[in-house]
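Box 3.1 A note on notation
Throughout this textbook, protein chains are presented in two layers. The first layer is the amino acid sequence; the second is a C-alpha cell string describing backbone geometry. Keep the layers aligned when reading.
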Amino acid sequence: MKLYYSPGACSLSPHITLLEAGLPATLVKVDTKTHKLASGEDFYAINAKGYVPVLELDDGRRLTEGPAVVQYLADRNPASRLAPAAGSFERYRLQEWLNFITSELHKQFGPFFAATTPVEYKPILRDKLSLRLDWLAGQLDGQDYLMGSQFTVADAYLYTILRWSPFVGIELAKWPVVAAYKARVEARPHVREALLAEGLIKEPAVAAA
C-alpha cells in the first residue's frame, strides 16, 4: 500500500492508524501548495480533488477521505481493535464520532488555513469551535479515549485535528480534559513514531557520556 500524505495534515490520522494496526505501507509526500510529488508528478493525477489522504492499494485502487480510509485500515487487522466489529452498535458510535470530527471540527479549522478567508470571519469560527470543544470536554470527562478505554481510529483523527489548535489561536488549556486527552494520545509510541516520520517532532537529544 501507499499513503499519500502531507506533514501534519489530516493524513496524519491514517498514518497513525497504519502504525497502530501494524500494516506496512510506503509513504509518499505531497506538496499541497504546488500539488506535486517529489518526483514532479502531478498530484491531481492521483486525486482529482487535490488533497490528502489517498490510500493506494497494491492492485492500484485508491481510497480517499480520511474517515473511510481509517476504517478500511482498521478492518485489515481486526485484532488491533481500532474499530468495533462491522454491524455492531459500537461501530455506528465510532462512525458518529468520525462524522462529528470531520464536519464539526475539521471543517471549522479548514478556513483558517485558506488565504481567501476574511479576517472578520475567523472569530466566528473560533466561537463555534469553542462551543464544540465545550461539548467534547464533557464527553471525555472520566475516560481515556472517545470510545472509553480502547484507542480507536476516531482518536487518531481527533488528535490530528487538535494539533492545529495553536496555529489558529485556540488554547486547549481552556479545556484541561481535552488538553490531557491530547497529551495522552501523543504519548502513544506509534503516534510519536508517526510524528517523527513526518518531521513534526525531533528525537530528544542524547546527553554526552
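The chain has a mean pLDDT of 96. The chain has two domains: 2-80, 89-188.
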